[in-house]
Design goal:
Helix content is 16%, strand content 10%. It is α/β, with parallel strands linked by helices. It has a domain of 71 residues: Ribosomal Protein L15, Chain: K, domain 2, CATH 3.100.10.10. The strands form two sheets. It has a three-stranded parallel β-sheet. Strands 2-4-6 form a three-stranded parallel β-sheet. The radius of gyration is 44 Å and the shape is elongated. The termini are far apart.
Length: 200
């Protein structure tokens, strides 16, 4: 067998439909477009997502608002009022909070909030604690230990002066110097000559 003897499998190829060549051809009269209407006209090609004039799906859907922060840390909140079940001098940890059924699990970090009052000295070890909660526990004689390190604050960017424009401080100094009058010469006492003596 040679290349010119190759043929497609029988039934895999069909003759092109001859549209508008009489009813005997199978697609005469209306050529398969039906009667009248927008789709029967020559050159009709609807744009993508066109739904016949009704509000299309893309505009019916609600717009997405905001965004999802991938770096957000979901804390389990524990209030100071929840620590009333512990006796003075106790060491409060996430595991102990779970035993007391204050926490559901220890899989998420814990943050201590300042809601409520505390009247006993406790050693609280949690991932994070608000500054107000720390102040209340320390005032009651206790301590707070945070196990999750806080991120370092980013250094502030210093704005550079644009080319062709003087810095604000230099500009103010130049304006002050231009507005101040020159100091007058001090008057010399009578009888003294301004000229220096010869040989002096």
């Amino acid at each position: 067998m040679q290349a010119h003897q190759l043929k497609p499998a029988p039934g895999s190829r069909h003759a092109k439909m001859r549209v508008g060549r009489g009813n005997a051809a199978g697609k005469g009269t209306y050529s398969g477009r039906g009667l009248k209407g927008q789709k029967s006209r020559a050159g009709h090609k609807p744009r993508r997502y066109f739904e016949g004039g009704q509000t299309r799906m893309m505009k019916r859907l609600p717009k997405r608002r905001g965004f999802t922060n991938l770096f957000r840390v979901a804390y389990q909140a524990v209030n100071l009022s929840d620590l009333a079940v512990f006796e003075a001098g106790a060491e409060v940890t996430p595991e102990l909070l779970k035993e007391k059924r204050i926490l559901r699990s220890t899989g998420k970090p814990v943050k201590l909030l300042a809601t409520g009052k505390i009247d006993r000295a406790l050693t609280v070890t949690v991932q994070r604690a608000s500054q107000a909660a720390k102040d209340k526990i320390i005032a009651a004689g206790g301590t707070v230990i945070e196990t999750l390190p806080r991120p370092e604050p980013k250094p502030k960017k210093v704005k550079k002066a644009k080319k062709g424009k003087a810095a604000p401080a230099a500009k103010e100094q130049a304006e002050k110097a231009a507005g101040e009058p020159e100091p007058e010469a001090e008057p010399t006492p009578e009888g003294e000559s301004e000229a220096k003596p010869e040989g002096g």
